Amino acid sequence: MKNPYVAAGSAQTIVSNTQNSQASGSSTAQSKTDALVFHAVEPTRSELVHFLMPFFKPMTASFIQSIVLCMLASCCSFSIPLCIGLSIDALFTPGMPSLSTYLLLLLVSIMASALFEWTGVVRFTHACVQSIRALRSRCFALIQNIPLTYITKNVVSDIHNRLIMDCDQISDGLILALNQSVRGLIIIVGSFVCMCLLCWQMALIIIVLLPCFMFINSYIASRGQSYFEAQLRAQENMMQFIHESARMQKLLRTTCAFRARSQQFCALNHKVEVQAKRAQFLSSLANPTTRLIQNLLYAFVVTLGAFCVVTQQFGHLSVGALVSLLVYTQQLTKPINELSGLSTQIQTAYTSMIRIVQLLMFAKTYENNSDEVFDGGSAPRAVTNTAPVRATGDMSNACDPCDSHDVRCTQHICKTPTYVSASRAPLLKVSNISFSYDGTHNVIHDLSFEVYPHQTLALVGHTGCGKSTLLHLLMRLYPLESGEIYFREVPYRQLSAQEVRKHFGMVLQDVNLINASVYENIAYGSSNATPEYIRSVAIKVGAHDFISQLPQGYDTHLSQNDTRLSKGQIQLICIARALVFNPEILLLDEPTSSLDTRSEAQVTQALQKLMERRSCIVVAHRLSTIKDADHIIVMDKGSMVEQGTHIELLAKHGEYAQLFASQFDNA
Predict the structure, then answer these.
(1) Nearest to 41 by CA among 510, 297, 355, 369
(2) CA distance 161 to 233
(3) Are 302 and 326 in contact, with CB atoms under 8 Å apart?
(4) Cβ-count burial of 375 within 10 angstroms (0-12 exposed, 13-18 middle, 19+ buried)?
């Protein structure tokens, strides 16, 4: 069997921002760990039926229609051997109807059988394709239930394989294997009945030998299933290795590590070869073995039938009846022989079913973490008077960043003036939260703070202290282990993830474009954004000029690795994407750290417009960019060590003062 898995291409997810420091030396061990994410769930046959039946049940009528048409085709095919035998007897037996009568019946039977079979296959194919489409859609919807802690780049490739290739394998297996199985069962029963009507003694002798076919097929299928599972796992590991190697070409070439990488690939390739040989050898034994038994059975029937015609041992057996028995014998053994030839496809489809159900079962265990599940199963609580202005052509209620403040283009991100709420009620409250990726080592430990309306909060600290993780927790990308986060005094646990996220806008250091037009990139996630609104947003962030210079303007198609735009221009598109939703709270995760000086100035100016009259949480390594923040939190190993304004923290001569002094000395 050829490898059904192909390279998945680039699969960029939001977790790449938190896992981009993965060492290449641990890729093999990581791949083995990722492989256990779904394989740890082993479904039973009853669970396979339980999870897959709901997708096929809506097409029950189509399946029944195809079975009925299959039965009609089989009934027509039963008359074909009988017409052949009667035609032969009509040549030698006087008093029988003319030969032309039986030939006409034979032609009608052949045409009717072909018509019913063709119609049944069409109905069966339609039902299978519709069911697989529903199955694939359900799997795609359940992916968002899986915690991001499980979703690494290797797991992304595995999910891609399950949704695309495994679903196709199931579809092919159902269309080819099950369709022939249903028709084959009907032919076996019908042929045996017709043989009994012609000569029941011969029929009994033939039916006694059929268990040989059954035993060989069941034995080879049971032994080959484990080999096919091992083969698919080996192919999956090799596919992930190839995908990873394609992404690491720069690193491999600059470090001269391609030879070692090639040796690792040869080892994986050899493992795939060994597993494929085992699986293919065992499955390929079924077809020639059953053909051997079929030929022996056919020779036995010919010899015994000729003896009976001559001696009349089993009553009056004519030459035509013997020919009919031979054709029925061929019809009887043909479905079994075809099923043995389909053993590879059936076993591959069954293995793919297991892999799909593994994904469904794994995602099902985290269904309570999905966007649609709320605390205690109750309905989501609406947060009154908090819905941001959605993307429409009407900008009357949106925050106009140019209406009241003179914003200068400087290198200070936090330059917006403080806008203090009269009520001083916190917009966002973090209360004693803790979080760990592996359940053992806390990345965030007992952290508490408050964010007020129109306040700018800065998070600083050494790399790995938990700043970016905290932003992901605020966006509810990971579940909290302890503590609580409140939005307008409503706990996160009582809000759906969508209700929380629609109030946030996030701008990351690593920018992401989708394979679509500029307009679709800016309006991504907003279904009702008009072209006029998108254009006005692009003008506000300073992206309109370079967009207009593209070949098709806003209709220019962009890709993830588009070379026509600089990093700063791509970042401006991402800032415009965040501004489309007019969020109440803006999260900035070092959006200018990877830009050159000129691009940083452009992006900084756009960020200042985006931050006006909004609550902002800024993560920055360069402390000079957040000196004007209303409040600064210094983090170390997931905990808060200091907090205050820039002046207050410098006066303490603590961790912040040391960080600031070290950056000043380096400058």
Answers:
(1) 355
(2) 11
(3) yes
(4) middle
Helix, strand, coil percentages, rounded to 5, for the chain: 60, 10, 30
Instruction: Find residue 558's DSSP bridge partners.
Output: 516
What span, in angstroms and rounded, lies between the C-alpha atoms of 585 and 538?
Answer: 20
What is the structure's pLDDT at 7? 30
Q: Which residues contact 358 (CB under 8 A, 6 or more apart)?
A: 38, 39, 41, 42, 43
- List, for residues 522-543, the tens digit of each pLDDT value: 888 777 788 888 898 888 888 8
> Rounded to whole angstroms, how far apart are CA atoms 169 and 171?
5
How many C-beta atoms surround the C-beta of residue 367 within 10 A? 11
Q: Are strands 615-619 and 456-461 parallel, antiparallel or unpaired?
A: parallel
DSSP-derived pairing of the beta strands 504-507 and 639-644? unpaired
Q: Are 6 and 239 in contact (CB under 8 A)?
A: yes
In whole angstroms, how far apart are CA 315 and each of 31, 306, 398? 70, 13, 97
Q: What are phi and psi of 444, to 5 degrees?
A: -120, 130
Query: Residue 596 and residue 573: Cα distance in Å, rounded?
Result: 17
- The helix-helix angle for 343-364 and 211-247 (nearest 10°) equals 60
Sorted by sequence, the CB contacts under 8 Å of residue 664 that are 6+ apart come out as none
Region of 315 please: left (phi>0), alpha (psi -120 to 50) or beta: left
Please give the angle made by the CA atoms of 27, 29 and 32, to the nearest 5 degrees: 110
Q: Report how far residue 214's alpha carbon sits from residue 210's, in angstroms, rounded to the nearest whole number.
A: 7
Q: β-strand 428-436 against 442-451: which pairing, if any?
A: antiparallel
Closest of 47, 45, 37, 109 to residue 78, by C-alpha: 109
Cβ density class 421-445: b for 16+ within 10 Å, e for less: eeeeebbbbbeebbbbbeeeebbbb
Closest by CA to 505, choosing from 390, 619, 586, is 586
To the nearest whole number, what is the mean pLDDT of the chain? 75
Q: What is the pTM of this model?
A: 0.58
Q: Which of 159-173, 216-230, 527-541, 558-572 is least confident?
A: 216-230
Task: Give the end-to-end CA distance of the chain in Å, rounded to a whole number.
Answer: 62
